[in-house]
Input
Amino acid sequence: MLSMLQDAGFDARIGVYVCHCGLNIAGVVDVEAVRESARFLEGVVVVRDNRYTCSEVGQKGIADDIKEFMLNRVVIASCSPRLHEKTFRTLLEKSGLNPHLLEMANIREHCSWVHYDNHEAATEKAKDLVRSSVARARLLQPLSRTKGRVVPEVMVVGGGVAGISASLYLGGMGIKTYLVEREPSIGGHMAMLDKTFPTLDCSLCILSPKMVEVAECEHIKVLSYSEIEKVEGQVGDFRVQVRRKPRYVNEEKCVGCGDCVAKCPVKVKDEFNRNMGTRKAIYIPFPQAIPPAYVIDEENCRYLTQGKCKICQAVCERGAIEYDQTSYVETIEVGAIIVATGFQPYDPRGLPQYGYGRFPNVITSLDFERLICADGPTYGKLKRPGDSQVPKRVAFIQCVGSRNVASGCRGYGPDAETGSSSGAIDPKAYCSRVCCMITAKQAFMVKEKYPDAEVYVYYIDMRTAGKGFEEFYQRGRHEGIVFLRGKPGEIEEKDDGC
Output
């Protein structure tokens, strides 16, 4: 009989249950008033209030009412559906009702919590939410489960440490995985770091074995130098169009000998080294790159821009240089997509008072990582970009671009350059969570390499919440790093470049 009452042909018989949620709701909302306001709504045959509707006693009461009053719709006025919608749908199913004949009114997050200072308004809003939920419940139709196609393959977008870890986890379970990375090599920002905190382990010593494992896993296909163009489909059955950019170097033939690089006449700024070094027009991003094959920069290659040169092709004994490669779109079907696209560091030119972009010796933390790294542009020697001298004093400024609600910081990028209002003001109210420990690590590394150097850290709050983080911070203070609570208002450059 219950299954028949679920059909649209029968009048709705609705039970309404208003929850006190202890005092979370009842401390603000007049639950009894909400209950009585629902009693005479169309289709409602029973109304009750419970101290805890989600409890065993509360659920049993609903189940008993479904049988006694032959309810075919249920409205729960309580907390967020995210918390207990599954609980009550299971209850309906066990009671013989279709689980989708449930409607929930969120009178905790939407009423008592946001209107805690106005009990009357919270109560009236709760009445409105219950009334609208009852109206919706009258129109609910039973839904049935269906089976759909699920492609047993996964695409991971982003080849940083998060994407690599996800791919290895999936590949280890035998799931075919496509790892898509827009750069010529996987590795992401972690490949640019010298050491990790708080253990000061070599970053690439941790990352490089994982990169090699990805390349060797038979269940993982690395699509480097590629970007997502379009995604169609639904959960379990996606069709992804991936734009494969030309490397102009055959990955299978290239053995990474470097003969092409030695002969290439073109030098340009090296993006991997934050433009503090140079590379050739044919290059490999870093020695541990995966795939371990060179790539030609089509914007700076003389042959691709001017139609002359071909020196790299002439010296390549393996015949790996292929100027006729073109961009193409590959369509891949997957059942799930993991987005691990990483981050872009804040550009401090948005805060001109600090002089980044004007003063050569003002650098970012990522610039610092490349300078201090053994395979960086200065081979691990901390040299000032302005004059290549080792600094005697180093200052670190915390929270540049974050926690700046009062002053706001001007975003630097296409929108700001063109004067467009879109995205021009970029307040960054949140804490980045990692910069305190990054700075503590970098300050310690300066002291480690140059014990006589004076190292200062300007901070708002030192937030060292993590295993071993506070101990690492205290260790830095013990080594002579000076932590000063305060934020510099402006940076000026002296005649000697300091």
